[in-house]
From TrEMBL:
This is 4-azaleucine resistance probable transporter AzlC. It is found in: Cell membrane. PANTHER family: INNER MEMBRANE PROTEIN YGAZ. It comes from the Archaea. Belongs to the AzlC family. GO terms for biological process: L-valine transmembrane transport. InterPro entries: Brnchd-chn_aa_trnsp_permease (IPR011606). One of its GO terms (cellular component) is plasma membrane. It holds the Pfam family AzlC. The chain crosses the membrane at residues 12-31, 64-88, 100-118, 130-153, 159-176. Keywords: Cell membrane, Membrane, Transmembrane, Transmembrane helix, Transport. It is a multi-pass membrane protein.
Length: 225
């Protein structure tokens, strides 16, 4: 096993403690919304994006038009475009086929941990570190989705598994906030996204991301001057 793969697998262990209940919640929600077990598992396999899956599942449970469901999922996942643009320079030396394979495993957690390691020059082979982070996430995600599907709605709400969702994102956000521009970007995007939580098609998330990026860039320009 490559040394950087082992390092990535070790670094991701704390994050997996949040991914496991997150995936379980997705499996439970899918069954509760009326999806079949195969549909629920297939959704985690092919969509592989927790926040958009939860939004789509909620809309499916409300019998929303399929166009609205798909559009909402796409809007929420637009952040992956920003992730790709940010991490692409570190993987530019690999073949296109390799980059396409790695793209499937891109998640919030894999992005945040990998980018932090790359910026700190903590790895020799970016590809193997990325896979070391992403592979355990994908395995835990699928296994715990199946667990959620099998358990269905049998887990009592008092267990508070749904609280794992924001904890996962907080766990990957805090280590990245290493300077003022990034902190401002995170704070502004969070405030805007919460303020626009009721916007149609969940547009509050991408709008918050764009406003946060602009605020971070402005802060950096002011600091440099």
């Amino acid at each position: 096993m490559h040394a950087d793969f082992r390092t990535g697998a070790r670094d991701v262990i704390p994050v997996l403690l949040g991914v496991a209940p997150f995936a379980t919640v997705v499996g439970i929600a899918a069954i509760d919304a009326g999806l079949t077990p195969m549909q629920a598992i297939g959704m985690s396999l092919f969509v592989y994006a927790g926040s958009s899956q939860l939004a789509a599942i909620e809309l499916l449970g409300e019998t929303a038009p399929i166009v609205v469901v798909v559009f909402t999922a796409i809007i929420i996942n637009l952040r992956m475009v920003m992730y790709s643009a940010s991490i692409a320079p570190h993987l530019a030396d690999y073949r296109r086929r390799t980059r396409a394979f790695l793209a499937y495993f891109l998640t919030d957690q894999a992005y945040a941990l990998s980018l932090t390691a790359y910026e700190n020059d903590a790895v020799d082979d970016e590809r193997w570190y990325y896979l070391g982070v992403a592979t355990p996430i994908s395995i835990v995600w699928m296994v715990c989705t199946v667990i959620g599907v099998v358990l269905g709605a049998g887990i009592p709400e008092s267990w508070g598994l749904s609280f794992a969702v924001p904890l996962v994102f907080l766990a990957i956000l805090v280590p990245v906030m290493k300077d003022r521009p990034r902190t401002v970007a995170a704070a502004v995007s969070g405030v805007v996204a919460v303020a626009l939580a009721g916007a149609p098609f969940n547009l509050g998330l991408p709008i918050g991301a764009v406003v946060g990026i602009c605020a971070g860039l402005l802060t950096e320009v002011i600091r440099n001057r």
